[in-house]
Design brief:
This protein is an alpha/beta fold. Helices cover 47% and strands 20% of the residues.
Amino acid sequence: MSTEALQRIFKTLADPTRVRILALLDREELAVQELMDVLGMAQSRVSRHLGILREAGLLRDRREGTYVFYRFTAPRDGAWRDAWELARRELASDPQAERDGAALVRVVEARADRIKTFFDNVGPEWDALRRVFNDDALRARAIARLAPAKLTVCDVGTGTGVLAKELAELGMRVIAVDPAPRRLEAARAYLQKEGFAGEKEGLASVELRGGEAQALPLADAEVDAAFAHMVLHYVPQPADAIREMARVVRPGGHVVLVDFVQHDVESMREELGVLWLGFPTEEVRRWLEAAGLRDVRIQHYASAELPATFVASGRKPQAL
């Protein structure tokens, strides 16, 4: 490696702010505003450092509507890699890095709090709002990915329990999970009215559990399949939710996702409280594969009135 190339490495990583930014983006994908909140710095200063790091090939950015999210891309070049490992080791005993980590937790928690507040305010009215998602057709596509009856399945982000009820009607035992108390109350009332809060005519009951998608209240390998139907765009850390779904599925079982393909309909943030404007399906594929799932399949569905949607699924390998 040339002296000039070495100088570039040292110059890039010699600035403590840039090292702090890399450490944060190594843990979490963040928007500029979120980095400003963690670092306590003005946008111009944060953006300048991001530009330098991006030019050095250390960042991957993703545009979503008017937002740009950044993620650290681990260097493959030997000298860059060694220099970053040295910088990261030094951070382990740095009080500022510890404070940054605590601030990062608060920023990520704030994402989740915005969604909880939205759904607590919406409560039972969610059934009216969800019609914008073309729910009936999407649920049918998701259910079609499952095997026949007598499975135990997890409905992640059950909302008011509509999908849980449809799965139970097929003879499945359903564990329905949602983080919003008001929605759980609405789901319980709806399922009791429909007769699926307990055994009825041989069909399995629906069990309601409070919990987050990134920390599902299920044991390892507890279910045969896990659904996230129009849920990921409300999850602060979608990749973590997919890993959790893979964790709770038994070997040979399936994870099924239904959501929007990445789009630019900004009004959904305000009207529907979404965190993400859909997802690039190749990124969804990477998340599924990174969670250890195989036989990943993704199908796209166009819509004249809504952003395009996808149904993705992956299978957990059988234990050896």
